[in-house]
Design brief:
The chain is mainly β and 445 residues long. It has four domains: 31-118, Immunoglobulins (Immunoglobulin-like), CATH 2.60.40; 134-215, Immunoglobulin-like (Sandwich); 225-290, Immunoglobulin-like (Sandwich), CATH 2.60.40; 295-435, no CATH class. It has one helix at residues 2-20; strands at residues 31-33, 37-38, 43-49, 58-63, 73-76, 82-87, 92-101, 114-118, 134-136, 140-145, 155-160, 178-183, 188-198, 210-215, 225-230, 235-240, 248-253, 256-260, 264-267, 274-280, 283-284, 288-290, 295-303, 315-318, 324-327, 339-342, 351-353, 366-369, 389-391, 397-402, 414-424, 427-435.
């Protein structure tokens, strides 16, 4: 019995000796994660972790591959994820790895490495543009582009339309869609490409092309426009024959643009220019021009009847073009005259007089003070206050009503305005504008 007891004690001592001498194991090989691309001096974040067999706290040593060294960083629990931020100063390719050690300073293997390329990266090559593969001439077609930037930077796009290269668009976020419209004017097949650049002007390669076939479509025909004055010449009604295939019509009055699907339009404000176009898609016809602009005679001299020089003519009239022409008081000119200057009957005052007063013709022309000295401000002739003879003064503007039928206002009448630039002795210098559209009182310049 005694020998058995001794053997048991010996076995227990041997077992205790073996347990107390167990060898300390190193931490496991760390696992590292992080980016593979970056730009100089931009912070890049990496994470890593390991476990220690004995559960010891661990320290880490990171090799950044750029010659910069760090001391062991201690005090991390086994299994905890650690985050490190690093800036690579210069462009290049760097090998990043990490290893760990436990409290007994037993070191692990180096982790698997991450290869990090540092450069000012351009945007990635865009995919081919998306958009219609068949379009018609003159119609705006929209195309879209999309790409990513290796660093997540915003980008701008430029299209090569095949017939021209467009401008760079505005910045959009990486991986966002950018779209732009283009009008092809000539039939054919065009390869549409796109490229991108970032704020540093680093530019991608051109995308592969999108082939777009353009089919010719003619612009609509020019409208045939007629017009008539309304409200005794204060407004103008435009009418035209419907143009085949026109979607709508565009009316431009001076700097204003109006649209309608009707075949008539009332212009309510005096204008110097009116153009009417038929529109089909984005194609427009040639302009039908309504001749509402004044015919200008910027400087004409007439003389009072008291002037004795035979070449000094006291009368003027409007020829078939609307230009004011000076005439003598010879009977052969009676039908041509619209007004004459009289400084005899009303001496020493200067009057403009309708020749019809004397029976020289049958016209009932009249005039009225426009109430302004600014020629351009006299835009709509008055309807009342006209007289067949009126004193004129230098600097004033007058409306002229060419009442040829003596029946009141009608579309057979014409209106004009005259500014008295100067009265010097018997000479009168006039600036005259004539509205050739019958009955229309607009006198815009």
């Amino acid at each position: 019995m005694r020998s058995i007891t001794v053997s048991a004690v010996v076995c227990c001592l041997v077992l205790a000796l073996f347990v107390g001498c167990k060898t300390n194991q190193p931490p496991a090989k760390p696992v590292i994660n992080g980016p593979t691309q970056g730009t100089p001096v931009k912070s890049l974040a990496f994470t890593f972790s390991t476990t220690d067999p004995e559960g010891d706290d661990v320290a880490y040593l990171v090799s950044w591959g750029d010659g910069r060294s760090e001391d062991w960083d201690e005090g991390y629990l086994s299994g905890d994820e650690v985050r490190r931020v690093h800036k690579f100063v210069d462009s290049g390719v760097y090998i990043v790895k990490v290893k760990a050690r436990d409290e007994a300073e037993i070191e692990s293997e180096w982790s698997n490495s991450i290869t990090v390329s540092i450069a000012f990266w351009p945007p990635n090559q865009p995919q081919p543009p998306t958009g219609p593969v068949t379009c018609t001439t003159g119609v705006a077609a929209r195309f879209a582009a999309k790409t990513t930037h290796p660093m997540g930077d915003s980008v701008r796009f430029q299209f090569d339309w095949g017939d021209t290269i467009g401008d760079w668009g505005g910045l959009v976020a990486s991986n966002s869609v950018y779209s732009e419209e283009h009008i092809f004017d000539t039939a054919g097949t065009y390869n549409v490409l796109v490229r991108a650049k970032d704020a540093r002007n680093s530019t991608s390669a051109w995308s592969d092309p999108l082939a777009v076939t353009i089919i010719f479509v003619a612009a609509p025909a020019k409208p045939v426009v007629a017009w008539e004055p309304l409200e005794k010449g204060a407004k103008l009604r435009l009418t035209w024959v419907k143009v085949a295939d026109a979607g709508f019509y565009e009316i431009k009055t001076d700097d204003s643009v109006h649209t309608t699907t009707d075949t008539s339009f009332d212009v309510t404000n005096p204008a110097a220019t009116i153009e009417v176009r038929a529109v089909k898609g984005s194609r427009k016809s040639d302009a039908a021009v309504v001749p509402v602009g004044m015919v200008e005679t910027p400087n004409i001299a007439i003389y009072g009847m008291s002037d004795s020089v035979s070449s000094h003519y006291p009368a003027f009239g409007f020829d078939t073009t609307g230009t004011a022409v000076a005439y003598s008081l010879a009977s052969s000119n009676y039908l041509k005259m619209d007004y004459y200057a009289d400084d005899v009957t009303h001496s020493p005052k200067m009057f403009l007089v309708n020749p019809g007063k004397n029976g020289w013709n049958t016209k009932r022309n009249a005039l009225v003070d426009a109430g302004t000295t600014v020629y351009a401000d006299a835009k709509l002739a008055d309807t009342t206050g006209y007289v067949i003879e009126r004193e004129i003064e230098a600097g004033n503007v007058y409306y002229l009503w060419l009442d040829r039928g003596d029946v009141g206002w009608s579309a057979d009448d014409n209106y004009a305005k005259a500014k008295v630039l100067q009265i010097s002795g018997t000479q009168i210098m006039l600036q005259i504008g004539y509205q050739r559209v019958g009955g229309l009182r607009w006198l815009s310049k």
